[in-house]
Amino acid sequence: MEFPPFEHLRFYEGVHDVRLNISYSNIKGFTLGEFHKTLPKDLDLNWTDERGPPELRRLIARHAQVAMDHVLVTTGATEANFLANVALVQPRDRVVVDTPNYSPLRDCAVGLGADVVPVVRDCHDGWSLDLDRFRKTAGGRAKLLVFANLNNPTSVPLGRNDLQELADIAQECDGYVLVDETFRELAFHHPPPSVAEFGPRMIALSTVTKVGGLGALRVGWIVAHPRLLERFKAVKDYTTVCGSSVSQLLATWALQRWSLFRRRAKIILDGNRKLVEEALTKLPALRGEVPKSGSVMFPHSDIRVPKLAQRLLRVYKTIIAEGRFFGVDDHFRIGLGGDPGEFRQGLRNLEKAMQELA
Fold this sequence. Notes:
This protein is of the alpha/beta class. The chain folds into two domains: 7-29 and 259-357, Alpha-Beta Complex (Aspartate Aminotransferase, domain 1); 46-257, Type I PLP-dependent aspartate aminotransferase-like (Major domain) (Aspartate Aminotransferase, domain 2). It is 40% helix and 15% strand. The strands form four sheets. It has a seven-stranded mixed β-sheet, sandwiched between helices.
């Protein structure tokens, strides 16, 4: 077992003190004080249910429209992805990964010795999904098909017909479809359906991190058939066993008021979309529409992205996420969910750097 370096994370570790980061995919951080609640003095800090507290699982199940026995709470969606991969993937298994994509969704299976095959979308046709290529690449033997919905970094959705056909491909392969649904709810008006609706071969991952701005809680979950959850739980016994009772209580509070978090996210994203739409009119070296949904966009740059990223960091103390982190070199990710004032300044810095390098 040898996992590739998580280069995106290592990059962030090196620049965590840089204030203007316009690459993050999360919504502006939410603080403890904004809950207007006090932690109970009798909160058990010694033990919590290994599958997740019943109330938290009940809220997740209601949210996902499944029974509680279809929910396993994890230490973030990152652990959820790891559990599913370790439980299902063996060395030399074929794993087909939608690309561009968040690197742990690709590289976890690489670390397990799988034959990981990317199917790269084309920005020139709006990043549309080529299901025929997926079926051909799966070759009737793929163990796992891996996606994010909404996609990270493009925010492109997978619709109902896409998901049904992917379920059919998984059936043909005797395999599974793994979908990170962390951003799905950020398609406010027409959210795509959860993959959990499409049968026992479908696995959904999610978290309170991105929509809620609650990344430090590290609370996520897997929604899948109970037989699969037993396999994932057997791996979890060797990773975290159970989660933090404090974090899981705060996540419960958040899901009890989830409509507030969604409204908050929409207000921030709507405002920042207008800012970036205005900025793009002054940036002819960038190509790509601002997505109507989601918290990220992934424009093509006529200027070499590493050179642009280095100048932004060195001269303007501003961060973008290079496309190489997602498998496509001539693009970069912009996050739309940050503080509006900081985002406006970051876009101004981007404009200056691109004009200087043009």
